[in-house]
Each structure stands twice: as structure tokens, then as C-alpha cells.
Amino acid sequence: MNDLIISAVGKLQGDMANENHTVVTQFLFISFSEFLEVRVSLFFLVLVLYLITLMGNIVIITITVLDPALCSPMYFFLRNLSFLEIGYTSSTIPKMLENFLSEDKSISFLGCATQMYFFSFLGIMECCLLAALAYDRYVAICHPLRYTTMMSRGVCLQLLAVSWLIGVLVALGQTTFIFTLPYCGPNKINHFFCDLPPLLKLACADTYKNEVAVYTITVIFIMVPFLLILVSYVRILYTIFKIPSAAGRSKTFSTCSSHLIVVTLFYGTGIVTYLRPKSTYSRDTDKLLSLFYTVVCPVLNPLIYSLRNKEVKKALRRVMARKIFIRNL
After folding, report:
1. Residues 302-326 pLDDT 10s
2. C-alpha to C-alpha distance for 122 and 89, rounded to whole angstroms
3. Which of 268, 105, 246, 315 has the alpha carbon at shortest distance from 189?
4. CA-based diameter of the chain, in Å?
5. Plot region of 185 (φ>0 → left; ψ -120 to 50 → alpha; else → beta)
6. What is the pTM of this model?
7. Backbone dihedral angles phi then psi of residue 67, each to the nearest 5 degrees
8. How many CA atoms lie within 13 A of 133 on its CB side?
9. Cα angle value 42/43/45 (rounded, 5°)
10. CA nearest 309: which of 261, 259, 262, 263?
């Protein structure tokens, strides 16, 4: 994929040079604040959240791999979601941390394209996987007798493969579409990573078709999965209210409401960011929204989806006990 991005970028820069345009070879990120004290505080805050995200997802991956009891489709999707979260956060946060403390806040043209590709690929794939996870919960609660058939190993692998394919193709097309626009100055990105709205604002050409493409992708791959998740949880809640046990209703409702809050934050901030017209782009608002779906939601995912789960806690204790036992042999 990198070879395709390099080829597209090289062609664009060659075309611009032939047309006597000023070729943009790098972009500059605009800092969150001019005050060093504020940037240092933000550095440590984001670093802590990033480390929590990494550790939480590594724990989930380790437990779901080592403990044979966690072999249901839900944990299959959670394990893959954790892999995604590590890559998704690592595509933007390390560069953001570097820019908090460094005077050089530049990123190369190719580096910017690569960052956008992986951020888009992993983000779109996560949208698809979250929808698959919601469907899994819907089948488990609303159709428990048909669960093993409807969510067989083959079905899970197909859902994962489709998510990968959609992520790769959409991200490649989107990145190529954005970086074949002419960029002839200015080159300051009013953001902390190479995202679509601020880059479209820098292009020195008509971006109407690109904006339409962004809106279309947002509707199909963000809004549609979000609506499917909402429909799934409405059906789940309807089934929950028919449970005769008050304790059972309370437990299931608590779990579903937590999932729904995280999903709403992730999808909601993304929808607002990418469906807004370019003319309404605001530096502070968009940076704040982006922090939610790049930093805050990835921290919440392992806590809400797994570490509050009793089965995961029991599995963690079993894995720890097994390690202690082996060490004492």
C-alpha cells in the first residue's frame, strides 16, 4: 500500500513541477498553544491516556489468546478491536506528543499521506467492527437459540475480512483522492494530525468533488454502521425489558448503556467533524472533537467493553494464577 501512496505522491509532485507550481514538500502543524507550560501539561496528559490505551488493549489481547474460556465470537471481535485500537492510536498520538515539545512541527508530504492512509484505514475498519460487535450482542440476546449458527466461526471470519477489505480500499481511494490535489502553499495544517478537513482547506484547487466524496464516505461507512448499531441496541433494550428478573434486566441494561455511550461518542464526533461544510471549519472545535475520537474513546473502549466484564476479570485472575504457579515450580 505504501508503494501505491508513494507512486501517487510522486506523480502529483512531478505534475506540479511541470506546471511551475510551488511544490509543497512538507506540512507544518499549528501548535495547541504558544505557552510551553500548557504544551507540557498536555504532553503528560495525552501520554498517560495513550499508555493506558496500550496497556488495556494488550491485556485484552493476552487474556483472550491465553484463556480458552474466552472463545466466543464477542471476544474474537474484541481481540481484533484491541489490535485495531493500538494501531489507530499509534498512527496519530506519537507525532502529537513529539509536536508538544519539539520546535520542529513539520511532517513530510509522503509522511502526511501515510499517516492519513493508516488513520483512515484503521478508523473505517473500527467502524465496521463495532457494528459487527453490536450485531453479535443483538443475536446473543435476541436470538440465543440460533446464536451458534448465526455467529459461527465462518461468519465471524467473513465479517472480519469484509471489514479489512472496506478499510483498505476506502482509505487508499480517499488518500489518493486528497493527495492528488495541488498544494502550492500555504502549508500550515491547523490540526495535530493529517486529517481531511484541514488538508482540504489548504488545497489550491476546487475541492467540491473531494468534499462530496468525504460526505459520501462518512454517510456510508460512519453513519450507516452507527444507525445499524442503534437499531441493534433498540432491539436489545426491547428484549431486555421482557426479562422477568429485575437483576437480569439491570445487569444487561448497564452493560448495553455503557457500550452505547462509547459508541455515540466515537461515531458522533466523527460524524460532526466530517459532515460539516469546509466553510464552517473551526480550529479549536475540530481539534477538540478530534481528541475525543483519537484519544478519549480509545481509552474508554478497553474499560467499557472488557475490563468491566466479569468473565474478563475471572480470566485475568486465572492467567495471573497460572503464571504464578508456573513461576513457583
Report:
1. 888 766 677 777 877 887 777 676 6
2. 9
3. 105
4. 74
5. left
6. 0.87
7. -95, 115
8. 23
9. 60
10. 259
The residue whose grid cell reads 498517560 is 48
Rounded to whole angstroms, the Cα distance separating 15 from 20 reads 9
For the segment 242-277, what is each residue's pLDDT rounded down to a tens digit? 877 766 667 667 667 777 888 888 898 888 888 877
CA 197 to chain centre: 17
Report how far apart the first and last C-alpha atoms of the chain are (Å, whole number). Answer: 48
Q: Using CA atoms, how far apart are residues 167 and 125, in angstroms rounded to an integer?
A: 5
CA 58 from centre of chain: 16
The predicted-structure confidence for 101-131, as pLDDT tens digits, reads as follows 988 899 999 999 999 999 999 999 999 999 9
What is the number of other CB atoms lying within 10 angstroms of the CB of residue 80?
22
Q: pLDDT by residue (tens digit) across 54-74?
A: 999 998 898 888 888 888 998
Distance CA 230, CA 317 (A): 34
